[in-house]
Give the backbone structure.
Amino acid sequence: MAKIIFMPQGKEADADGHMSILQLAQKVGLPLQSTCGGKKKCGKCKVVVEETDASLPPPSDQEREHLGELLEKGYRLACDTVLTAGAQIQIPVESLVRRQVILTSHTKYAYPARLQPNVEQYYLEVPAPTIDDVKADRERFLSALHETFGLRHLHMDTAVLRELPRLLRSGEQGLVALIRDGREIIGLQGELEQRLYGIAFDMGTTTVVGYLMDLLSGDDLSVVSAMNPQIPYGDDVISRISFCQQEPGGLEKLRSHMVHCLNGLILEASTQAGINPNQIVEMTVVGNTAMHHLFLGLETRYLAIAPYTPVVTGAQDKKALALGIEIGPSAYVHLLPLKAGFVGSDAIACILATGIHRKKATTLLIDLGTNGEIVLGNKERLVCCSTAAGPAFEGGHIRWGMRAAAGAIERVKIDPTTFDVILKTIDDERPLGICGSGIISAVAEMIRAEIVLEKGHFNENIQSSRLRRGKQGWEFVLAWAPEAGAEQDIVVTQKDVAELQMAKSAIYAGATLLMEIFGGKPIQRVLLAGAGGNYVDPLDACTIDLFPGCTIAKVIGVGNAAGHGSCLALLGKTKRREAERIAQKAQYIELAATERFKELFVSSMFFTAARDYEDNF
Amino acid sequence: MAKIIFMPQGKEADADGHMSILQLAQKVGLPLQSTCGGKKKCGKCKVVVEETDASLPPPSDQEREHLGELLEKGYRLACDTVLTAGAQIQIPVESLVRRQVILTSHTKYAYPARLQPNVEQYYLEVPAPTIDDVKADRERFLSALHETFGLRHLHMDTAVLRELPRLLRSGEQGLVALIRDGREIIGLQGELEQRLYGIAFDMGTTTVVGYLMDLLSGDDLSVVSAMNPQIPYGDDVISRISFCQQEPGGLEKLRSHMVHCLNGLILEASTQAGINPNQIVEMTVVGNTAMHHLFLGLETRYLAIAPYTPVVTGAQDKKALALGIEIGPSAYVHLLPLKAGFVGSDAIACILATGIHRKKATTLLIDLGTNGEIVLGNKERLVCCSTAAGPAFEGGHIRWGMRAAAGAIERVKIDPTTFDVILKTIDDERPLGICGSGIISAVAEMIRAEIVLEKGHFNENIQSSRLRRGKQGWEFVLAWAPEAGAEQDIVVTQKDVAELQMAKSAIYAGATLLMEIFGGKPIQRVLLAGAGGNYVDPLDACTIDLFPGCTIAKVIGVGNAAGHGSCLALLGKTKRREAERIAQKAQYIELAATERFKELFVSSMFFTAARDYEDNF
């Protein structure tokens, strides 16, 4: 079989005549950008085929469309090219998935003063058996728990039974039972410990964040994060769901990638804190409905077709072992409740963390992402919806869009007279592309500099070498090829602006619809949650008319509120019940079933929609 | 590394200079007889070392003792010989573990007329979700179960959740939930089935028997059996327990061998019945306490030292998946309750099956084995004990003893005047050795022919070429070397008779003690259970004075009563509660703590003990 060598990494794969270059690269651990999941639609997986032993098939229509003149330089789409002979493949830096800047902080919140972990320590002494009273270990132990604490009907799994004889005989001084929810003994120790370890996860479509905590003090012991390992199978949940349908064993593949990722993070967090992962007695998980289902290995097919039915929405308690999660052998994983196919436990956790369901003031909570979850409410009532904003807020479907990784343009300043551009990139590296907050910032600046007009068109009257006609219509140059160190100039195209209009219009229309359902009460606060949410400048959000009634003063970035909600559920069992009440209480609006949403969506496209709307309200 | 070739099988192993020939043979799937578990005590693992490339170490004391003149013919003990160079090893036919005749029948019992399986089918229709009422699959399904049958708080594991979306959408006509004990949905089907499959196991020290049954009709669908795969690690439970203590990972090794064996039997039974193992919805298991603990991977160390404490005695319900058992993915394994370290769930199952706890008549139940379990009782009261009878009843510690496999002498007739011998062997093959019922039969005949006298001594006055002085004292020839096709004559030695006296004395003393505790009430029936029990001739049992007050008329062989008890628990949930009541009710007598037992043991050695005892009672 012919060898394929990926450069500059030098990794090798065998060309089997069946797998695409994209699949081969995934196989050897080089995940390429692929917003569409290998469907030849996004054009992100550009590679250069060099030194091949055989002639390549002619470019497909999709390759012609996405690559244009790059074809002459040997560029191909990795997803659309199958090699039958050896070759050297150059991976341009912009095609490689880079480690995203992951938003883990949620320092704006304090933990509740009263911790109520659902796992508690019980110290007790158990009499030794005698020849005249030979009661079995388990039965003596349970009797002692009953006599000492009045506890009855306690379960105990085989892993605990396996430890029991040794611990009963290990010391003079009795032992400690770890009891979960007063119902099951999930661990045994020789003595009372000063710390009890738990881990809370926020399992996002793009990133996974874990918080290792001490359940007794509420201390954060370590925070770890990783890119979602399912990204190579599709950037968004819909691509991953269709991967599961098309590839035999696809669901199991995505499930096991996620489990492997979580186990890696658990090990990393434990190592940082100087503990063994099997000392972790409880884990909580939040995520959107698709992530939740993929983690449990549940069918996701019906999430993608009307009426978008989840398999399960209630909170789940599963043995970690049965899920393949490597923590304490008898520990449980608690999955917070979901609301609907596109309002997951991450949204419930955001509400839990921000407490909007307990406040008199009416709050609009927006989680900016491919699916923008929107919640509006107060202590009386909650309404929520999810809008298919598309991937623009995460850099997807944008000509030069990329994830929020090093080299991504995240802030743009444009001089309104000279049209000179000042860029801020992540880690101050040479610009490689534009991330979600970057495209919002760029378009907001272009609006303020009147390069982009009210309806989203480019102002053709502007005299600047940066504004020009490209192959796909008008475009504005943010960075010239030499500064970017790229083959081409980094631009914002007319189509990019249109993509952002679609995205923001979806949010705007969803929020407006919720307000109408809510009875038009004035919104006192707007919370922007999620990675996108925290990095977006409130001024930029208002400039692009992201939501109705926008005034900068009341917009607050709240960071990773979902992760914080997961931590709260880890630390307090009453918080779990609160999450269930939130899921019960929240009224879900299915936008797909709402004619009014379509009207609002169309009327919210312009960048003056906010003002128009307020005039009419 | 040098090659070892085992003949006549032709299997090969590498001589690593560390493993004994016994271990190497186990490794390549040639289990050798080893009553002592490789401790150089039983002398059963004889092999002939041929064509070796190196000189062997001189024979050990144990080899000299067990092999005697056979040493000159190249015989060695496989457990005591480590090879450092290549060799060819001849395995004599008597050294190989042969498939035992396994007692599976329990046809003397009828199943209860009213079946009450703990898994039931519920047919229901679940409304499809609509865009206006998007309830998740699980929540709609649970609502329908509540509305249709009033069932609430039902559990459902991930395996069932994974099936739910497909089955909810597979037909127009609703679906069937399999519900266990009214508490958990353990399976889903498209329609009501005519059969519901369960499997009951009796997990003996020597043999494992499985009964595949239809829970709806009570029909036996197939019966399967295998040798206990733990035999190569020790013939009796004490040897296996010490193996676990001495070998790192030993417990896990024995556990996984048993699980593998059970899965093989499950597959075999399913294939015979034309079903898939994952159609099996419930499994029950009985076994002695050590087998039970080894199957669950529980510590067995404390079973072997006073006060012989089990880890657990209560009935257990465990997910099959968590135990590695390959039946329905959400099915449970029910383990019947144990009584004590040496009165296991097999004894409880024997009581359940024979119903002695429900009868007015006082019954003595004896399970003949290495540990002889004895129960005495009626519907008022039950007392039980276990006596360390030693392995004689299973052919162990007997010079020519062997398992009840083809070629084993199982019945002996001796002409009281000519002393001619007529042998009955299993499968009518040439005699290879003497099994448990064979040694009882031989000694009983020798008593009747007055070759063996009251105190167990050989009658030296008898004139017969068959009675002679051997190297270890007097011996009686059952088969001459030419008829046996062996190198040596098959004999019963004075020491063999003494071993049987020890064994029968343990049973006699245990039964007598129970009778004394019971207040000396007359015994109306004696039931002989277990493989040994069924094959032993009641007349032989009485001739050797196996238990007090012996009259042939009231002795009944009841076959594999433990297996039948396991089946009853599979078919009826009330039988499970009954088993728990039996375990509660039975009073366990620890013989090790009883001075009276020691007195009785000494006074029960003679073959007239019965008459003596009755005279004094």
